[in-house]
Design a protein that fits this description.
With 413 residues, the chain is α/β, with parallel strands linked by helices. 34% of the residues lie in helices and 18% in strands. The strands form three sheets. It has a six-stranded mixed beta sheet with strand order 2-3-1-4-5-6, with helices on both faces. A four-stranded parallel beta sheet has the order 8-7-9-10, with helices on both faces.
């Protein structure tokens, strides 16, 4: 369970390490982090599924280091491992492509030697993911330097030399990764520009069967912590206490944040001057593309009983009664469209490559995923011209209050 003093993995800088089988990725990670994060062996394919390690690295701060399987894995399970590596690439904020100096650095063999690395480099360029090339085994001297120079000429990217034996070059790696940090990385606010110091914020949080016993869910915890950091005045109530607490307050809340499933109830009973939003809508902006989600919600009006909708839930929890993704949202859609509407559900990392079978994709708040991965899902939907929205935005649209829902400005996300 994540506590208030921990940075959730989904909010950490994801640094992916990519390269061929036995290029030294695991040795590099162990030397870079100063820990035995990954198993090292002279056996091809030692790393199978990607290994995700959360840690603090100065001066980068909270990070997730991803050790991936070789992208040239030709073993019996190689194809499936490469698919996992591709998935890791979608989560990667900064990519390190590692190449061993033992590879052929001669003029005749370089292009063939560099073919796969260059293919992945182009993939990261398309995703607008910063890339750092690293040549390992710098102790090979001139051979390593020659290979690094050829990579620089081919790509125009900075290429560093390291040795996992004596640690040479590791400090330069950290410095370069800091320079490659995406612009304004980590500067986003969940609540954006909606509130400031001294504002009263009222959280209306149902504690029904879906609420975990003895703790708050991650979006609630993160939002409360941010509001405290902003020096807001924060008050929390359950649904049944909402109308009881309003007369007690000396002023109306600047902002009311609630669960999307009770949007309609809170909207009908809130003070006129109070803005209203939900945790799901806030995370739609914080993790994804709120403008895209709002536009995508309009596709609900065009759905028919012959339409197909995909609901993508990030969590992999066991289904509960009145589950919002599995029960409540499909029920609301079918009430609007008709019982013939087909609604499919995927959870966790499952997300189809092909989306054109669907007329609409509805993504949850994605508190468990980093923003880079959520944006990759949105980009996939855009490329296939399939509208995509979010739980909270969809529910606000279905209840007719979306234009009245408060959304943070894009420039503060």
């Amino acid at each position: 369970m994540t506590t208030l003093n921990e940075t959730p993995r989904s909010n950490r800088l994801h640094i992916g390490i990519f390269g061929r089988t036995n290029s030294g990725k695991s040795s590099f990670i162990n030397a870079f982090t100063g820990q035995e994060v990954s198993i090292v062996a002279d056996v091809a394919g030692t790393t199978t599924d990607p290994v995700y390690k959360s840690m603090e690295i100065y001066p980068l701060g909270p990070c997730v280091i991803i050790d991936t399987a070789g992208f040239d894995d030709e073993s019996e399970l190689g194809g499936r491992r490469i698919e996992k590596t591709k998935l890791a690439a979608e989560k990667t904020d900064i990519a390190v492509i590692l190449i061993s100096a033992e590879e052929n650095a001669g003029e005749a063999g370089f292009q063939e030697c560099f073919l796969q690395e260059n293919t992945w480099y182009r993939i990261f360029q398309e995703k607008k993911t910063p890339v750092l090339f690293v040549v390992s085994k710098s102790d090979l001297g001139k051979r390593a330097e020659t290979l690094a120079e050829k990579i620089r000429r081919e790509t125009g990217e900075e290429t560093l030399l390291v040795s996992t034996v004596n640690g040479e070059g590791m400090d330069k790696i950290k410095t370069m990764l800091t320079r490659l940090l995406p612009e304004n990385y980590g500067a986003a606010y969940i609540t954006g520009n909606l509130v400031k110091k001294g504002d009263l914020v009222l959280l209306v949080m149902p504690q029904d069967i879906q609420a975990p016993k003895g703790r708050l869910i991650l979006p609630q915890v993160q939002t409360i912590r941010e509001l405290l950091d902003k020096k807001c005045h924060v008050m929390s109530v359950t649904t049944d206490q909402f109308t009881e607490v309003l007369p007690v307050l000396t002023k109306a809340p600047k902002l009311i944040i609630t669960d999307s499933q009770i949007f309609d109830y809170v909207y009908k009973n809130k003070p006129k001057e109070s803005m209203l939003t939900s945790f799901s809508v806030l995370f739609a902006a914080y993790k994804g593309d709120i403008s895209c989600y709002i536009e995508g919600a309009g596709a609900i009006d065009a759905l028919t009983e012959q339409s197909k909708v995909l609901i993508a839930e990030c969590c992999t929890h066991a289904p509960l009664q009145e589950d919002i993704g599995r029960v409540k949202l499909p029920r609301m859609l079918r009430k609007r469209v008709g019982e013939g509407l087909q609604v499919d559900l995927v959870s966790g990392m499952d997300f189809p490559e092909k989306l054109t079978d669907y007329d609409l994709v509805i993504q949850c708040g994605a508190c468990m995923f980093n923003r880079k991965y959520v944006l990759s899902r949105i980009e996939r939907a855009k490329k296939q011209a399939v509208p995509m929205t979010n739980y909270g935005v969809a529910i606000a649209h279905l209840t007719g209050i979306l234009p009245q829902v408060a959304v943070p400005s894009d420039d503060l996300l």
